[in-house]
Design goal:
Number of helices: 24
Helix content: over 70%
Mean pLDDT: 85
């Protein structure tokens, strides 16, 4: 019986991975007891242990979905008293809008997959230069994220890329385009030619997705609605949309330009795994698919595309004007699309939520780790050091400190701590309003730009890593870190210099 339970534990994960998680669970309470016994701050030290262990589960997401090992760590943290269920609920409550967004908006995008695939297929075929196509993905994602939401844009990228891969895999398995039941996760049916082109096509898709993901960060930092922490900082500072954009512009505009240049540079010189070209055989597949769509489109399919187009337009308008919380707008999209496309069976509706719900659960576990960070004051030494420095050097230090902390934790949490500390300093007369404004800009840009270094630094990156797309295109944690590295270095340097000389 025990051996059976051991075999079932974490399913098909490698034995060494299972043993590592077990070791984490065993040594953590022992370490806590030892540190507290010898008079050290055991809770603080073990809190960092938990954070590093959770990052480990994210880094090996392709070995095992992080929900289970990360969840076991979170449960242990509560048992050991490093946080409480009330604190976790508080973190979830503060990020409820993000959770609703994931549950409903991602499902809403699922029902638009026909429209998205049609648009992006034509884009893929019309723009033959990989550099131009990469730049287009990065630029478009940036513009959309500035006015919509990075997670929504990422959901579109994921949906489109899975659609591309499904078409390739279906045809390369000698199946017709219209075979909707084909299992694109099973490579046993691929022809020899399909197997030859598969890795090249995966690399091509990886490049486009990563350019798009970085683009969401480039655009998200620019406006009050681009990221959740932007809205938080603007609220404390008392800035409206235009004022927020203008105050951030001295940093965000140089960073945006640097991002576009970096995109072209790394594609042209094939740096950090970029530069993968679309195989000619695959291009032919999509040409045939485009022809198939034109000649075999039924009246019903055309009607569906019209409905999806109208709802997509309404979605953009609703998001741009912020008519409601993003999650509620996503729910509206689901209702409209399913009603007018005639999707009324429960099991058909359920398919749309398969992508979002596991990540939603993982995000709740992530907030448990954030609660540990908060309750054990893990970032306090860094914060106290920065605030103890002279006001002249605080903005660049805030940028660096926020960048480092946001790369390993929740951006909203880091921004909340820093902006509240700075606001308290302003209220107590320790800094001037001008200093406060400069520090607020540094906090916002710091929590947005360098955080692209790791998947746990951006919710959109984390969503991409844990999506069903990641294993399809061999997108691991370390590969994401490596591919984001040129962007991280250049954008962080440009942002840092802009803080010093332009702010």
């Amino acid at each position: 019986m025990i051996s059976t339970i051991q075999k079932m534990f974490l399913g098909n994960s490698p034995i060494w991975y299972k043993n590592t998680i077990v070791v984490f669970l065993i040594i953590t309470p022992i370490a806590l007891s030892i540190f507290n016994t010898i008079g050290m701050n055991g809770n603080f030290i073990v809190g960092w242990f938990f954070l590093l262990q959770f990052i480990f589960t994210l880094a090996l997401a392709l070995k095992c979905y992080p929900l289970q090992p990360g969840g076991l760590l979170a449960i242990q943290a509560v048992i050991l008293g490093l946080t409480t269920t009330e604190a976790i609920f508080h973190e979830i409550e503060n990020n409820l809008e993000v959770i609703l967004l994931l549950v409903f908006m991602v499902a809403g995008i699922y029902f638009m997959k026909n429209l998205m695939l049609t648009i992006f297929t034509k884009l893929l075929l019309r723009v033959k230069s990989k550099i131009y196509l990469s730049l287009l993905f990065c630029f478009s994602a940036a513009i959309l994220s500035a006015f919509l939401d990075a997670l929504t844009v990422t959901a579109v990228l994921i949906g489109v890329t899975i659609g591309f891969y499904r078409v390739f895999h279906t045809v390369s398995s000698n199946k017709p385009f219209g075979d909707n039941n084909h299992d694109y996760n099973n490579d046993s049916s691929l022809t020899d030619l399909g197997l030859q082109d598969q890795e090249k096509f995966k690399g091509f898709l990886r490049d486009l997705v990563m350019h798009g993901a970085v683009g969401t960060a480039l655009g998200g930092v620019c406006t009050i609605v681009g990221e959740p922490q932007n809205l938080l900082i603007a609220k404390v500072a008392g800035w409206e949309f235009i004022e927020f954009f203008l105050r951030m512009a001295p940093i965000t505009m140089p960073v945006f330009i640097a991002g576009m240049i970096t995109c072209v540079f790394i594609e042209k010189f094939a740096i950090a795994g970029f530069g993968n070209q679309l195989p000619e055989n695959v291009r032919k597949i999509f040409n045939d698919f485009d022809e198939y769509e034109r000649t075999n489109t039924t009246i019903e399919h055309k009607a569906e595309l019209i409905v999806e187009s109208i709802v997509a337009l309404l979605l953009v308008i609703a998001l741009a004007l912020h008519l409601a919380a993003v999650g509620l707008i996503g729910l509206g999209v689901i209702i409209l699309l399913t009603a007018f496309k005639g999707i009324t069976e429960e099991h058909h509706l359920g398919e749309a939520f398969h992508e979002a719900l596991p990540f939603t659960a993982l995000l709740a576990v992530f907030f448990a780790i954030v609660a540990v960070i908060h309750d054990q004051h893990l970032f306090s030494p860094v914060i106290n050091y920065v605030l103890s420095q002279s006001t002249e050097v605080q903005p660049p230090l805030f940028f660096v400190a926020n960048g480092f902390l946001s790369a390993i934790s929740d951006n909203v949490f880091v921004a909340t701590i820093y902006i509240n500390e700075v606001k308290a300093a302003l209220d107590n007369g320790l800094i001037t309003r001008e200093q406060f404004d400069s520090l607020a800009v540094a906090i916002n840009t710091g929590t947005n730009i360098p955080s692209i270094a790791t998947p746990n630094g951006q919710a959109a990156f984390l969503f991409l890593l844990t999506s069903s797309l990641a294993p399809l295109i061999n997108l691991s944690y370390m590969r994401m870190v490596l591919m984001a590295l040129p962007y991280t270095i250049i954008l962080s340097i440009v942002g840092f210099l802009s803080i010093i000389y332009l702010l």
